[in-house]
Protein backbone atom coordinates (compact mmCIF):
# COMPACT_ATOMS: atom_id res chain seq x y z
CA UNK A 1 0.00 0.00 0.00
CA UNK A 2 1.30 3.42 -0.93
CA UNK A 3 2.16 5.49 2.12
CA UNK A 4 0.27 8.66 3.05
CA UNK A 5 2.78 11.24 4.26
CA UNK A 6 1.25 14.24 6.04
CA UNK A 7 3.95 16.91 6.17
CA UNK A 8 2.79 18.87 9.22
CA UNK A 9 5.81 21.13 9.65
CA UNK A 10 4.84 24.31 11.56
CA UNK A 11 5.77 26.54 8.62
CA UNK A 12 3.52 24.54 6.30
CA UNK A 13 0.62 24.68 8.74
CA UNK A 14 1.06 28.44 9.24
CA UNK A 15 1.17 29.16 5.51
CA UNK A 16 -1.72 26.81 4.82
CA UNK A 17 -3.87 28.66 7.36
CA UNK A 18 -3.27 31.86 5.43
CA UNK A 19 -4.18 30.12 2.18
CA UNK A 20 -7.44 28.80 3.63
CA UNK A 21 -8.54 32.32 4.64
CA UNK A 22 -11.08 33.53 2.08
CA UNK A 23 -9.68 37.07 2.42
CA UNK A 24 -6.28 36.03 1.02
CA UNK A 25 -5.88 37.41 -2.50
CA UNK A 26 -4.40 35.71 -5.54
CA UNK A 27 -0.93 37.25 -5.23
CA UNK A 28 -0.46 36.05 -1.65
CA UNK A 29 -2.14 32.72 -2.42
CA UNK A 30 0.33 32.04 -5.25
CA UNK A 31 3.33 33.00 -3.14
CA UNK A 32 2.23 30.82 -0.24
CA UNK A 33 1.59 27.86 -2.53
CA UNK A 34 5.05 28.26 -4.01
CA UNK A 35 6.61 28.32 -0.53
CA UNK A 36 4.68 25.28 0.70
CA UNK A 37 5.56 23.36 -2.47
CA UNK A 38 9.23 23.91 -1.75
CA UNK A 39 8.79 22.67 1.83
CA UNK A 40 6.84 19.55 0.84
CA UNK A 41 9.33 18.99 -1.98
CA UNK A 42 12.09 18.82 0.62
CA UNK A 43 10.33 15.83 2.18
CA UNK A 44 9.32 14.16 -1.08
CA UNK A 45 13.01 13.93 -2.05
CA UNK A 46 14.19 12.72 1.38
CA UNK A 47 14.76 9.12 0.26
CA UNK A 48 16.65 9.92 -2.94
CA UNK A 49 19.68 7.59 -2.99
CA UNK A 50 23.19 8.89 -2.42
CA UNK A 51 26.60 7.71 -3.61
CA UNK A 52 30.15 8.47 -2.49
CA UNK A 53 32.36 10.66 -4.66
CA UNK A 54 35.87 11.98 -4.18
CA UNK A 55 36.28 15.76 -4.05
CA UNK A 56 38.90 18.19 -2.86
CA UNK A 57 37.97 20.99 -0.47
CA UNK A 58 40.22 24.03 0.04
CA UNK A 59 41.71 22.04 2.95
CA UNK A 60 42.07 18.45 1.70
CA UNK A 61 40.59 15.60 -0.30
CA UNK A 62 37.52 13.83 1.08
CA UNK A 63 34.77 11.34 0.31
CA UNK A 64 31.41 13.13 0.10
CA UNK A 65 27.80 12.28 -0.63
CA UNK A 66 26.10 13.09 -3.94
CA UNK A 67 22.77 12.24 -5.60
CA UNK A 68 23.84 9.99 -8.51
CA UNK A 69 22.35 11.83 -11.45
CA UNK A 70 18.77 10.80 -10.75
CA UNK A 71 16.43 12.03 -13.45
CA UNK A 72 13.26 13.73 -12.20
CA UNK A 73 10.11 14.90 -13.98
CA UNK A 74 7.60 17.30 -12.47
CA UNK A 75 4.10 16.78 -13.86
CA UNK A 76 1.51 19.39 -12.85
CA UNK A 77 -2.14 18.57 -13.43
CA UNK A 78 -3.49 21.62 -15.22
CA UNK A 79 -4.27 24.15 -14.30
CA UNK A 80 -3.90 24.43 -10.53
CA UNK A 81 -0.84 22.16 -10.46
CA UNK A 82 1.13 24.89 -12.26
CA UNK A 83 1.20 26.81 -8.99
CA UNK A 84 3.41 24.13 -7.41
CA UNK A 85 6.05 23.86 -10.13
CA UNK A 86 8.31 26.79 -9.25
CA UNK A 87 8.72 25.66 -5.64
CA UNK A 88 9.83 22.22 -6.80
CA UNK A 89 12.15 23.70 -9.42
CA UNK A 90 13.91 25.67 -6.69
CA UNK A 91 14.98 22.30 -5.28
CA UNK A 92 15.27 20.41 -8.58
CA UNK A 93 16.35 22.99 -11.18
CA UNK A 94 17.30 20.44 -13.85
CA UNK A 95 14.03 18.50 -13.65
CA UNK A 96 12.00 18.27 -16.83
CA UNK A 97 8.39 19.42 -16.87
CA UNK A 98 5.41 17.63 -18.40
CA UNK A 99 1.78 18.68 -18.38
CA UNK A 100 -1.45 16.73 -18.02
CA UNK A 101 -4.67 18.64 -18.66
CA UNK A 102 -7.75 17.40 -16.80
CA UNK A 103 -10.93 19.14 -15.79
CA UNK A 104 -13.79 17.97 -13.61
CA UNK A 105 -17.19 17.55 -15.21
CA UNK A 106 -19.44 19.69 -13.02
CA UNK A 107 -22.32 17.23 -13.26
CA UNK A 108 -20.62 13.87 -12.84
CA UNK A 109 -17.53 15.17 -10.95
CA UNK A 110 -15.40 12.83 -13.08
CA UNK A 111 -12.18 14.01 -14.78
CA UNK A 112 -11.98 14.67 -18.53
CA UNK A 113 -8.57 14.62 -20.28
CA UNK A 114 -7.88 17.41 -22.77
CA UNK A 115 -4.06 17.64 -22.90
CA UNK A 116 -0.96 15.51 -22.31
CA UNK A 117 2.64 16.48 -23.12
CA UNK A 118 5.45 14.57 -21.41
CA UNK A 119 9.25 14.34 -21.65
CA UNK A 120 10.25 11.70 -24.19
CA UNK A 121 12.22 9.77 -21.55
CA UNK A 122 9.49 9.94 -18.92
CA UNK A 123 9.71 6.20 -18.29
CA UNK A 124 13.30 6.65 -17.04
CA UNK A 125 12.49 9.33 -14.49
CA UNK A 126 11.26 9.69 -10.94
CA UNK A 127 7.91 11.39 -11.51
CA UNK A 128 6.35 13.90 -9.12
CA UNK A 129 2.70 14.64 -9.96
CA UNK A 130 1.51 17.87 -8.38
CA UNK A 131 -2.02 19.15 -7.82
CA UNK A 132 -3.00 21.32 -4.85
CA UNK A 133 -6.25 19.47 -4.15
CA UNK A 134 -6.82 15.72 -3.82
CA UNK A 135 -10.63 15.69 -3.70
CA UNK A 136 -12.36 12.69 -5.30
CA UNK A 137 -9.02 11.34 -6.47
CA UNK A 138 -10.31 10.94 -10.02
CA UNK A 139 -7.85 13.32 -11.68
CA UNK A 140 -4.90 11.94 -9.75
CA UNK A 141 -5.82 8.34 -10.56
CA UNK A 142 -6.23 9.12 -14.25
CA UNK A 143 -2.92 11.00 -14.36
CA UNK A 144 -1.11 8.12 -12.67
CA UNK A 145 -2.69 5.63 -15.09
CA UNK A 146 -1.58 7.75 -18.07
CA UNK A 147 1.99 7.82 -16.75
CA UNK A 148 2.04 4.09 -16.06
CA UNK A 149 0.83 3.52 -19.63
CA UNK A 150 3.96 5.43 -20.72
CA UNK A 151 6.14 3.02 -18.74
CA UNK A 152 6.66 5.03 -15.54
CA UNK A 153 7.49 2.90 -12.51
CA UNK A 154 8.50 5.50 -9.90
CA UNK A 155 5.64 7.91 -9.24
CA UNK A 156 4.93 10.19 -6.28
CA UNK A 157 1.82 12.33 -5.78
CA UNK A 158 2.20 15.73 -4.12
CA UNK A 159 -0.84 17.71 -2.97
CA UNK A 160 -1.53 20.57 -0.61
CA UNK A 161 -4.84 19.40 0.89
CA UNK A 162 -6.49 15.96 0.61
CA UNK A 163 -9.80 14.38 1.53
CA UNK A 164 -9.98 10.88 3.03
CA UNK A 165 -12.07 9.85 0.01
CA UNK A 166 -9.40 11.01 -2.42
CA UNK A 167 -6.60 9.30 -0.53
CA UNK A 168 -8.57 6.04 -0.47
CA UNK A 169 -9.30 6.24 -4.20
CA UNK A 170 -5.61 6.63 -5.07
CA UNK A 171 -4.48 3.95 -2.62
CA UNK A 172 -7.10 1.50 -3.90
CA UNK A 173 -6.27 2.01 -7.58
CA UNK A 174 -2.54 2.70 -7.31
CA UNK A 175 -1.23 1.08 -4.11
CA UNK A 176 2.37 1.53 -5.26
CA UNK A 177 2.21 5.36 -5.27
CA UNK A 178 3.19 7.33 -2.16
CA UNK A 179 1.13 10.44 -1.41
CA UNK A 180 2.57 13.60 0.17
CA UNK A 181 0.16 16.24 1.52
CA UNK A 182 0.22 19.28 3.76
CA UNK A 183 -3.09 18.40 5.43
CA UNK A 184 -5.74 15.70 5.48
CA UNK A 185 -9.13 17.40 5.78
CA UNK A 186 -12.48 16.09 7.00
CA UNK A 187 -14.49 15.03 3.95
CA UNK A 188 -16.05 16.01 0.63
CA UNK A 189 -19.31 17.95 0.44
CA UNK A 190 -22.18 17.29 -1.97
CA UNK A 191 -20.35 19.23 -4.69
CA UNK A 192 -17.17 17.17 -4.24
CA UNK A 193 -15.27 20.07 -2.67
CA UNK A 194 -12.91 19.37 0.23
CA UNK A 195 -14.22 20.46 3.65
CA UNK A 196 -13.00 22.75 5.17
CA UNK A 197 -10.59 23.01 2.23
CA UNK A 198 -9.66 26.31 0.66
CA UNK A 199 -12.07 26.63 -2.27
CA UNK A 200 -11.15 26.20 -5.92
CA UNK A 201 -7.36 26.33 -6.00
CA UNK A 202 -7.20 27.16 -9.72
CA UNK A 203 -9.55 30.11 -9.38
CA UNK A 204 -7.68 31.40 -6.35
CA UNK A 205 -4.27 31.05 -8.02
CA UNK A 206 -5.27 32.79 -11.23
CA UNK A 207 -7.95 35.16 -9.90
CA UNK A 208 -10.66 33.80 -12.16
CA UNK A 209 -13.49 33.91 -9.63
Q: Major sheet: size, sense and barrel closure?
A: 8 strands, mixed
Spatial extent as radius of gyration: 18 Å
Distance between the termini: 38 Å
Principal-axis shape: globular
DSSP strand tally:
15
Q: What class do helices, strands and sheet pairing give?
A: alpha/beta
Q: Count the helices. How many? A: 6
Overview of the structural elements:
31% of the residues lie in helices and 29% in strands. It is built from 6 helices and 15 strands. The strands form 4 sheets. Strands 1, 4, 5, 6, 7, 8, 10 and 12 form an 8-stranded mixed sheet that branches. A hairpin with a 4-residue loop joins strand 2 (51-56) and strand 3 (61-66). The longest helix has 19 residues, at 26-44. The radius of gyration is 18 Å and the shape is globular.
Provide a concise account of the structure shown:
This protein has helices at 10-20, 26-44, 85-91, 138-149, 164-173, 201-206, and strands spanning 4-6, 51-56, 61-66, 72-78, 96-97, 99-104, 111-117, 126-130, 133-134, 155-158, 161-162, 178-181, 183-184, 187-188, 194-195. Helix 1 runs antiparallel to helix 2 and helix 2 packs across helix 3 (85-91).
Pick out its properties.
single chain, 209 residues, alpha/beta, 8-stranded mixed sheet, 6 helices, 15 strands, 31% helix, 29% strand
How is the topology of this model organized?
Elements: E1 4-6, H1 10-20, H2 26-44, E2 51-56, E3 61-66, E4 72-78, H3 85-91, E5 96-97, E6 99-104, E7 111-117, E8 126-130, E9 133-134, H4 138-149, E10 155-158, E11 161-162, H5 164-173, E12 178-181, E13 183-184, E14 187-188, E15 194-195, H6 201-206
Parallel strand pairs: 1-12, 4-5, 4-6, 4-8, 8-10, 9-11, 10-12, 11-13
Antiparallel strand pairs: 2-3, 6-7, 14-15
